[in-house]
Please model this.
Amino acid sequence: MMLFWELFYTFFKIGLFGFGGGYGMLSLIQGEVVTRHAWMSMQDFTDIVAVSQMTPGPIGINSATYVGYTAVINAGGSQLSAVAGSLTASFAMMLPSFVLMLIISRYFMKYSRSSRVEALFAVLRPTVVGLIASAALLLMNSDNFGSWGNAPLQFWVSVGLFLFAFIALRYLKWSPILILILCGAFGGVFYGVVL
Model:
């Protein structure tokens, strides 16, 4: 029962202070579930992020769902209690945003031209960029990219796929879905044949 309260409090706090959307929340989620509470390993968290990106819906809520489930399973809970854990974490993640949007929507149109509101948004923009950059750096670890010393082939393939995806998206204006399919197919074939 204590785990459910911890899940609720942790994801409520992340939902309350996680500016910048799901990608901005990833570093906060990782800090809480891997480092602080040790509910899972970094490898498990990386897998959860990958599944959350592919699953329809916001990545922050998807991550909360999977983390809640995995945390309860890793604590020795049953499948049914793990589902309750995923519901608890998801609800806690959504609740602050829902309440804040109800409050903000009531006053935003009235005060949107206020210098204080504009100053607040000017402060939040670099914060959001920093949180998203932190999430990108968090995912650029040896579990995802390999390492120069231990797995140089995996490292260079990962860097090549990253550069291909960046160029195809930024300069060639290809569809992100096409890029994901091509990178996934190449990675699957390459790692299936070579490694």
Observations:
- The chain has a mean pLDDT of 86.
- The longest helix spans residues 79-111.
- Residues 25 and 160 are 27 Å apart (CA to CA).
- The chain has two domains: 2-139, 145-193.
